[in-house]
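dumping this here so i dont lose it again. seq + smiles for adenosine-5'-triphosphate
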Amino acid sequence: MALVVPFGQYVPGTSIVHRLDARMKLLVTAAYVFALFAVTGWVGLLLCTALFVGAYLLSKVPLRLVLRGMKPILILLVFTFLANALTFSALPLGEAPLVEEVTSYPLPESIALLGSFGIKPPGVLRGLYFVLRIVLLVSLTSLLTYTTPIVSLTDGLISLMRPLARFKVPTEDIATMFSIALRFIPITAEEAEKIMVAQSARGAVFDKGGPIKRAKAWVPVMIPLFVSLFRRADELACAMETRCYTGQGRTHLRVIEMGEIDLAIGGLSALVLILLGLLL
Amino acid sequence: MLSFAQVSYRYHGVTDPALTDVTFTVAPGEHVVLLGSNGSGKSTLARLANGLLLPEEGTVSVEGMSTSDRATIRTVRSQVGVIAQDPDNQIVSTTVLDEIAFGPENLGLERDEIITRTTSALEWLGLTGYEERDPSTLSGGEKQRLIIASILAMNPTYLVLDEPTSMLDGAGRAEVRNAINSLHAGGHGILHITHELSFARDADRVLVLQGGRLVFGGTPAELLNNEELLVSFGLKVLPQRVSALPHTINDRLLAALRPVTAPKRWRERGGVFPSLYLNNVSFSYGGSATAGGAGKKRRKKSGGVAESELGGDFRGDFGGDVAGELGFEFEPGAAGAAERVVLKGVNLNIAPGSYTLITGNSGSGKSTLLRILAGLLEPTSGTATFSSGDKVFPSAVGIVFQHPESQLFAQTVEDEIAFGPDNLGLLPSRDVRGTVVREALDAVGLDPRVFFHRSPFSLSGGEMRRVAIASILAMRPTFLLLDEPTAGLDAAGRAFIHTFIEQLVQATAGVVVVSHDVAEFSQRAQAHLLLKDGQLWRL
Ligand SMILES: Nc1ncnc2c1ncn2[C@@H]1O[C@H](COP(=O)(O)OP(=O)(O)OP(=O)(O)O)[C@@H](O)[C@H]1O
Ligand SMILES: [Mg+2]
């Protein structure tokens, strides 16, 4: 059992996307996110889509896995779409600059369904635009986590953060915290589930009554969960001390060596993306 | 030499010392087993060994370096590796390789040296090929071996292992036991802390801790062949005849087991209760994203059926699909598998007054089977019913989960035990409440006068387990399911569990125990079933 998180777990592979330096991947991802939000029309967005599809094909990650990343945000997508597509036609339409580009003829402002409530064709387009943008955002981050071991990601992140260490930012500690969080979130989720089932077996009900009653119903879950978390934290601290962790003077097994190819591919893609964002 | 000299230790705010005047040494290449019952101070001693705790009196030293000396603490820690009970609480990294490299990286070693050490540690513990695996996908035995490997990569001279096998199943125990023996053969000094006698045979020397004091030091044979000594150290409890126990406990138990929650027509039959059946039950995890939602709907419906048949005096609603509500989902271990079939057409008959043992490897689906038997989980196909035709409902089938003490939450033992029956609406008045709680405490052998108002968190591990069991018993189930009831308990705790179960069976409760400790339960249970490949096999 695992907590559903919008990023997946590393899928080992040897594709060029897998082999690209993690720091470069992070930079390219950042540039992509920039482009995604900087472009202001369908042309730009479709180009972004094409770039993602290219990266996805190169990565050889199964489509199923990329789609799985959508599951947790499905409701958000549906809501985004509906919020844009449906309208009370009495309300002003608002600017829909995205519309002109694909339609040269005027769209009806609203197709009434029930009284003033109806479908708004320009809104449908805008809804699709927003949905596609979220889908791309999530897909690309999933692709990043599917093709990069979390460790390389944290190491990459740390390495990019390294200049901050000069300003006394505890970069090593942040890296370790990140890795521990990744390990313990699923463990804690599983534990919470176990305790809930056990308290259900003692007749506890979590989904009945008013807000106060519901909040109170969680007490028998939260207290054991905290007790256990404190115990785990204590044992984990001992395990880390045993292995001489201080957060200082650490060396690294995985040194990420940035090859020329990495620099070239990464630099080029980042550049293209930034230009894309600025121009379209 | 790892040496303890007149070491005493007291936890902050506690009057009784956890360790008193402990003196012993472990030489490089020596294999020492330290035995002791629950609360005897074993874990405290382990933490003192490399300066995780510092002695109040006396000194702990390694090759002459005191653990209290901050200047040499890093050397001390890399010389003495301490491995604790629960591997899940010791793993820091998200891949096997990084976990093993964690210690050497902290020591600031050169990269080449880190590679040499991780490679040899991987090899030594048979983990070569596992480098990029996510530790959470490993079995218990593999996880514990990973921890040992990651300590080994620090190049220690001594290894202190605090009950490294107590969370593991049979296969995992064997793996870790072999690992310990091969480390010993490789010249490491081993201090293996345990409350299991069987490990003593591997040792060169055995120490016994009792009430924080070292009470024995000698060869394994000297201890193991002397039953009187074992009994006096609390390492062994002589079997007691149930009939020799005070008869009142049996009466109380019977009273406690009178199922008030049972349907009226059961009660009218004068205490003759139906059997519990599994008919062709299959179960699989995962699959579609809506599996949780569907389960929830199904359960709501089944709850309705039970309620109408009970003529309204059954008020429990058992929380629906708990996992679904939290937004978790059952994910198959390996990325990609769409569905994991756990049970395939299981048939089972649990009669009142019967005692069934179910064993199986970890991951074989024992816990799933128990949840279905308890009516907490709806089978994918097949049914869980009583022979009376009623669908299984949770209040008639009590379930004591593994480590039930980790579900305690209330401020007093009274509130803790009353929680279940209160939720079921069984406690109309304060008097009834007091009686139910007292009966349940009696049934688990705890004196109500002493324990009624105590905080569950102030109790010892063994007492907490008993309170947790009492809190299930107080709901007056007709059947009791126990998942690994003896896990982590010492000889006295185990003896209590066995007597308790025998009394339940005499009081015509149907008991099912799930355990990997075959030797311990198989001669006591009436039927022994093995869960393997999704099916039950009679042994
Ligand atoms: N953090 C703590 N604070 C206060 N008292 C503690 C703490 N940890 C342990 N103790 C007490 O110290 C004594 C020794 O505990 P310890 O955990 O060392 O025993 P143990 O032999 O390891 O027991 P077990 O077999 O249950 O693991 C016990 O009485 C225990 O209640
Ligand atoms: Mg202990």
